[in-house]
Amino acid sequence: xxxxxxxxxxxxxxxxxxxxxxxxxxxxxxxxxxxxxxxxxxxxxxxxxxxxxxxxxxxxxxxxxxxxxxxxxxxxxxxxxxxxxxxxxxxxxxxxxxxxxxxxxxxxxxxxxxxxxxxxxxxxxxxxxxxxxxxxxxxxxxxxxxxxxxxxxxxxxxxxxxxxxxxxxxxxxxxxxxxxxxxxxxxxxxxx
Length: 192
Known about the structure:
The protein is an alpha+beta fold.
């Protein structure tokens, strides 16, 4: 029987908390779940990523990956989200961009019955804007926000030019925008 997972995705090591609450089918592929995370959080899917749980890393194995370690790395290409999350309050981690190290905690908050009137995936709540790509992880992002508060800072003009918008709002989150983006994409889980 099809089930729906209520998932919370939260960026680790940053305050105020940057998070999203989504509903996804339990049988969504990990590959598609990665893309759903990218869309709901606001990332651009331009860096490597992995899921991890109990010391095991789950990612797509690249051809001729000479660093692959079969003892604790597993190709997730045929895996579903329900292979890693089965019970309410169970957690996994997700890392995006190994250089900046955007680490996320993913919690299976609730297991819900499938509702054929709902379109999945769907974002039902969230807080705060996604950090900017390539800004140096949570510490670089915190520094960037401090500079943006002070137009007299020596790095201000350079950062505004890099961002392309001096009105970047770290508190902005629009659930409707996120859901519109989710509807535009096809993650293989619209029709259940």
